[in-house]
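Students often ask what a holo structure prediction actually looks like on paper. The answer is less mysterious than it sounds. You provide the chain, you provide the ligand, and the output is a string of discrete structure tokens encoding the 3D arrangement of the protein together with zinc ion.
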Amino acid sequence: MHRRDFVKTAAGAMAGAMRGLHEPATGVAATPAAAAARTPATGTVPTPATGTALVSDARYLDHVLIRPNGSRPPEVPERLVRIRAELEARGLIEATVPLSPAADPLDRIRAHHTGEHVDSVRQLGVTARVAELAVSGALTAVDAVVDGTVRNAFCAIRPPGHHANNTGAEEGFCYYSNAAIAARYAQQVHGYEKVLIIDWDYHHGNATQNAFYDDPTVLFFSAHDWNAYPGTGDPSLTGDGDGTGLNINVHLDCGATDADMLRHWDNVLSPAVAAFDPDFVVVSAGFDSRRDDLLGCFALTDDAFRRMTRIAMDYADSCCDGRLVSLLEGGYNLDGTALAAAAHVETLLETRNP
Ligand SMILES: [Zn+2]
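The corresponding structure tokens follow.
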């Protein structure tokens, strides 16, 4: 048994007490259902789960973003249609465990965002409902990974979330900070202490950074083009207070290749993850870092997404019994996004030595 596994097993025997200690001071009281989920009915630590969930729902197509000036940005419902078609063509729909968003998202959204922001977004009709459904999908995936239904999950959700601060309006096609809310959910409801969030979207995950900038319980890694929207992601910003060193921003220039990206994983991310020793892994899976994207200028191939997925899974295997939840962020070349997402899901299914 891996030392880490042994530690986790020992900790699991005292799950209630240990996880009680892990509740952050600002934590929200766990629901009865969550409390039940923490303690397996058998009283034993379950063996690591297998399988990959695919969170999807036709209602994610109902949100159509039209700007006040009438323009229609490329964050379109067709993105999910094309991803699903590519997964179908490769036999990946039937290979995955289908999940529909079932978790109640509003309490978790309100625990993360300001009341003013939520009240404002909720004025947006169907868009507001779909944005809540995106959070619900992320939470449902966390639940499924925590309860052992699957080892990992990909959430084909929209709208994306990693630019959603508290402005009361859409930012960068985002309304609610899906990844940050999912991370907090894993901590505050399911009792996992430390969460690693990997963001490989072309754009900086500014809202995720902002949510955890001084937080020692979240390691955030974002590789992005600092010159692009939203203009944040300065590599010199490494966190604050107890979170110093746990915010990692990597800038990549236009034309960045697979090797350019992966070099930072080897040299920066992997040592940071080893030192941090997370309990849960969340991926902000944006595919606008793939070559030929409408909004990005990197040159990543589908193989980069396979390799990044594999490395993220290796992290999860080594520290977290494979617990990994991946959330769709950007990706605006419809063909390219579908191909990269399919490569991602194919890799998630390749569980090693469960
Ligand atoms: Zn993006």
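Residues 152 and 324 are 5 Å apart (CA to CA).
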